[in-house]
Amino acid sequence: MDSREALVALNMIEHVGPVRARLLLEHFGDAPKILAASKPKLLQVRNIGEETAAAISNWEKTVNLAGELKRISDFGCHIVVSDDENYPRLLREIYDPPLVLYVKGELTAKDKGAVAMVGSRQTTHYGIETARKLAYQLAYIGVTVVSGGARGIDTAAHQGALSAKGRTIAVLGTGINLIAPPENAELFQRIAQNGAVITQFPFNRPADKQSFPIRNRIVAGMTLGTVVVEADLHSGALITSNFATEYGRQVFAVPGRIDSPRSKGCHDLIKKGAKLCESAEDILSEFEYLFPSSNKPPSPGETGVLPALELSGNEQKIMDVLDGEERTIDEVIRKSGLPSSAVSVALLSLEMKRLVKQLPGKLFVKNL
Hints:
Elements: H1 3-12, H2 18-28, H3 31-36, H4 39-43, H5 50-57, H6 59-62, H7 65-75, E1 78-81, H8 89-92, E2 100-105, E3 115-118, H9 125-140, E4 145-147, H10 153-163, E5 168-171, H11 185-193, E6 195-199, H12 211-221, E7 225-228, H13 237-246, E8 250-253, H14 264-271, E9 275-276, H15 280-284, H16 313-321, E10 327-328, H17 329-336, H18 340-352, E11 356-359, E12 363-366
Parallel strand pairs: 3-4, 3-7, 4-5, 5-6, 7-8, 8-9
Antiparallel strand pairs: 1-2, 2-6, 10-12, 11-12
């Protein structure tokens, strides 16, 4: 048994969570030695009691490791552990990072600048459309959108990112083979093709009251910030925002109607110091260091982690129109020969790429 397989087994043992596992790894050095240890040896480790020591020393009676490894292979997913290069860097920094991640799809370096987007399952048309729009804008310029794959805001966030042909990651509160909600089966397939579906739970692990907070800490832990789009005062999305605050990450909240119960949670977050979010620009302004100031490849001395993006055909046409002079949007439409809707989308993207600046009065100028 190698170290990776031993971590999979350790992750399947009841009473052994990430915190206890870390103590055990510090004491024994690697996962195979933990599984081979006797109960008396295990009891010598700080915070390892009788129940946990017994569960580990008798792990082969309760854990079917060979069966789990076959399920992983048959399902077409793979395991990522903390020592792997593609394990989310920010997730390593939290107090209790997952021992293993089951991954359908791929985690890549592009996910270093990920942003979480969460909200209620029971939502309004306003919440759904806002989540889709924000996720589309973020994904369009290369930000990975992370959410929980649930009904409502989570689903809208994934859909918005996919519509922009961007990356998105769904973090599940179940085993990776369980589809919840069932109507998202096709969505999860698309996410795996354009990002990743991930979980820390073994196969066939159903959702329960404990699994969702465990899932939410991963959503907050692997991202630079969390955007709460719509949430009442008891929404699970607020658990994710609490984790983000605990981890020192930025929290954003989208305002809603003052008489809507489904926006009360967002308004409460704003009162407590979350940044009010009306557009993707409000999010990106907190992370300007991630974006190169021009479309040229960053020099070796630059610290941005997101690569500069290629310009689309429409964006290039608009860049050719703009110069040091201030231009109205009507002038840009006329000179570029593009439809007004195409010009609006391209200008927004160029603003986010820091190539175009919008001045008061809806005037646009090239950011020289």
